[in-house]
Amino acid sequence: MADIKAVLPGDVMDTGAAARDGAVLRLGPGLVQADERTSAAAAGVLHSDGDLWWVAGNRRRYVAAEGEPVVGVVVARHGEGYRVDIGSAHDALLPLLAFEGATKRNKPSLAIGTVVYGRVVVANSFMDPEIECYNSHTGKSEGYGELAGGFMFKCTLGLARRLIGSTAPVLAALGSELPFEIAIGVNGRVWVHAEGPEKTVLAANAIRNSEYLDAKQCRQMVKELLAR
Amino acid sequence: MTRPDRRDAGQIRALHCVLGQLSRADGSAQFAAGDSSVLCGVYGPVDVRVYDEKLDRAHIEVKLRPATGLPNTKDKWTESVIRSTFEREILCHLHPRTLVQINVQVRQDDGAVEAAAINAATLALVDAGIPLRTMVAAATCAVLPGGAIVVDPTLEEAAGAQSVHTFAFGGDTAGGPLHVDSRGDFAMDEYNACYDICATTAERVLAFMRSAVEGKIAKEALLVGAS
Amino acid sequence: MANTGPVTFAIEAFKRIHPVEFQRRFLSQETRHDGRAFGQFRETHVAKGTVSTAQGSSTVRIGDTTVVCGIKAEVSEPDVKTPDEGYLVTNVDLSPMCSARFRAGPPSESAQVASEHVFRLFNQNVVDLKELCIESGQAVWVLSADIVCLRHDGNILDAAIVALMAALEDLKLPQAKIESGVVSADKSTGRPLALRRRLFPATYTLVDDAYLVADADDAEEQLATASVLVVVDERGRVANVWKRGAGPISRQSISQCVDVATGRVPKMAEVLDAAGGQ
Questions:
Q1: Which of A86, A217, B75, C48 could make a disulfide contact with C277, Cβ separation 3.0–4.6 Å?
Q2: B84-93 burial string, b = 16+ CB within 10 Å, else e?
Q3: Residue C220 pLDDT more than 60?
Q4: InterPro entries, from UniProt (chain A) (predicted)?
Q5: Does residue B84 have a pLDDT over 80?
Q6: pLDDT at A16
Q7: Interface pTM (ipTM) of the complex?
Q8: Mean of per-residue pLDDT scores for chain B
Q9: Does the N-terminal peptide bond of residue B45 adopt cis geometry, omega within 30 degrees of 0?
Q10: CA of B223 to nearest chain C CA: how many angstroms apart?
């Protein structure tokens, strides 16, 4: 990563040759266009992939985006669905039938406080987000649904993205020591489940501690936690 | 000319800032210039009260707590200044029907605390990842009874000054001031001189804030690269 | 003239439905909806001594904006830190009486901000708190200035500043004596309070990000994106430049506002002088 390009809000972006060719640029998160100029709106590292440009920065508050996996907590039940707290400005709607194999007669009944793993299907700033716990194309759950047992904790969105992109060394370090289940929401909520509360808390702590550690430090940290 | 704290007239106090100090806020920053220190925590975009909900943009709320005692009208005045300074710099239209809450806690007031609050708010907003049009920086200077202009006055200097001038600028100081508050007994020559000094100072503050934020970004980016 | 009725109705409806577009039609033609030029202020009317129960009072009208200021002088103990200084307390009241936009209850933020700003302008700058001393460490005057808005049609801050200035000039402080710890005041004789300077405000408002207009009324203030308040004194010195709001007002524009405000001083001073008094 020799070409780390940190940008701050207001920095006018030099899109280089791409813009001069008159090619279409696609602006991702953290970039805005005003008066023929493209400038950064958030602080972070400027990335580009072909004609797609975005700014990757670490945040704590989730803003829902379509297709992203999230971990949420059921906070209310309505006639047509559940309201799920996914950490964004507005609670997400989870329709009663958005589960694998759910029919009008036979659908899961979730208590308030249940942790669910879902995928954002509707996300725009003018509507409340909507999530579902299955893939509506295949009808399969694909791992989404109620998360029973285990423990949910919050972390930064940056750490959650690293965990889910499997670039986080902590998961490898942890996985070689003890078996556990994990559900990572890019909304900065992670659910872990291991054998017994002790191991579950250990896994959760290890992940939380790992934010600013490299691979070697992660292995060391996990070892120390296990030795306690 | 020497000042009570042995600074030159054009010398600001030592700047210090910490980003992301508060673990539960969405973004936070502490900004200190000498003994004036301000802590700012930002929440946003979060759910908004129905009364404040705006269909096309985010609502901005500023809460300021003084170093001692309960908030009074003086703090309301500062709140209104901070809000009006950031109203346009925050890209409110990107998060309609939400609230961006800026909480400012004055830790210690030794002059130029409004400028410090604005600077802390900028850093906290950046830390929270709230979309901004540009970075905002503020600076204060005072005209002393002899006509000498001192930058970044302490409480003692400001109390004895003929006039005190606070300016806030966006990333480009040539684009005109975002906020101006000049008060006291002054001539326009003095106002213009203070304007120039504050514009230069704001640029320096901006450079300081930039290096602080870049440091944090680099720290995180290196980790991604290493793993 | 049979068709004037519907036309008038259409304009009223247009004004209500598209307030921004309504104002823009005027502003783009270099004029304003009430016929004023951009730099033209509404006429200021000042009457002093309008509240007989107050020690100093005034009524100020700027266009349709009307405020009444009454100053009540009371005796109190001084602060230990400043034993020979009195107090000035300002309160700007924007009640539902003056505009439908204000709610009953505790003072709104705009009222609190106006109170605070007026206080900062007058405390020590105009009113020398040492003048309010009756007996050092024993008794001082507290001047409670209540500025009540009766009708709100924009530019409340200018009106409040003019009103407080006029009321202070109208103020008669009773002769007070202190005898064996008891303060007695003779209300029949009064001395005027020596003021340090005379303040003259002028507000410019940026409407729709493009037009800088003087002394905006309520309809224009609704579309304001920024405003700059300039307060100058009779010697041509500036007391305050306060720009609020996010809209862009260039450095040059602010300087021009100060020039105009300074140029207006003789006329405004005449208005204050002609206001008479008790």
A1: C48
A2: bbbbbbbbbe
A3: yes
A4: Exosome_RNA_bind1/RRP40/RRP4, KH_dom_type_1, KH_dom_type_1_sf, NA-bd_OB-fold, RRP40_KH-I, Rrp40_S1
A5: yes
A6: 62
A7: 0.91
A8: 92
A9: yes
A10: 38
